[in-house]
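Journal club prep, notes for RB
We'll compare a predicted complex against what the paper describes. Inputs for the flavin-adenine dinucleotide case:
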Amino acid sequence: MSDLYQPVTIAAALAALSDLGAQGAVMAGGTWIMRAPLRQEPMARTYVATWRIPTLHQIEITETHVRIGSGITHAGLAEELHEILELRGLVAAASGSANPAVRQVATLGGNICTSGFYAADLVPALLCQNAEVDVETLQDRQRMSLQTFLEVRGALPAYLLTGVLIPRRPVISAHARLPLRKAGDYPVTIVSAAVERRADGTIGDAAIGVGSVEMTARRWRRLEEAVLGLPLNARRIEKCATDLAEEFIGRDGPETPGWYRVQVLPALVRRAFENLEKLSPEEGRHVDPH
Ligand SMILES: Cc1cc2nc3c(=O)[nH]c(=O)nc-3n(C[C@H](O)[C@H](O)[C@H](O)COP(=O)(O)OP(=O)(O)OC[C@H]3O[C@@H](n4cnc5c(N)ncnc54)[C@H](O)[C@@H]3O)c2cc1C
């Protein structure tokens, strides 16, 4: 049986985590931690809960950025951000993940910090928004790109991810996922896209995030370059994705082989771009093609 410590400040949480060392771990919504026995993983001796730390539950929306506290749940995120048009993809990721009960408790921080969870919906949606994360340890406070965080998170000393910063940009965004019942309803492949729609209807800057295919979610840079300047046409972009998909080596899992994740990837790209096509021309401020 694990102990639970419920601090009310970030400083107290970090001090406890530092004292506990390998015996302690952060607990946010607990939806991943509580399934540790099913994964044959040991529980920590003591969990340091985040739910009583008020600053982790705040969302700040300004003209230049949106900052989301790591303790915000998937349901809270969908509710608070649904009017921010450029974040439709993130809202779709938050409101389409897992099931309603899990979405009420699973947090943004838990989604990003779980290195053993490869099918996190929020991660590709945030990658294509150029998100940064705020990470605090007892020694310092750092802001780094989400992609960097995903690469270094396993090697950090005891830390707390306190929030995510999204710069506001004139983009339209969408999210597409393929859940499989056999995979416990976790998505086998995820594609998120955030693109600038130019006044002439072509694609300006494009950001495309891919999750669940490999162990770490990432941007699909070659596809982003290939679609630059093309009309916003989902079938055409699916063709580009088919031509480039061989750069992925899908991860094998008990629920599905890796090749299947890659095989369905172009169709998921098409679905994400079909969702973008459906958005009204007013969404996403037009940018000049030159
Ligand atoms: C049946 C089921 C289906 C699900 N399906 C999906 C799905 O389809 N898509 C999806 O995205 N999610 C899904 N999830 C939810 C998934 O568990 C959560 O998205 C998330 O990974 C866990 O969030 P949590 O707050 O519950 O984290 P917890 O279980 O509390 O913690 C998870 C890990 O993150 C660490 N951690 C948490 N917060 C912080 C922080 N602020 N700083 C540092 N470390 C931290 C913990 O120490 C732990 O290692 C599903 C969950 C269940 C139970």
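Talking point for the session: Residues 21 and 63 are 40 Å apart (CA to CA).
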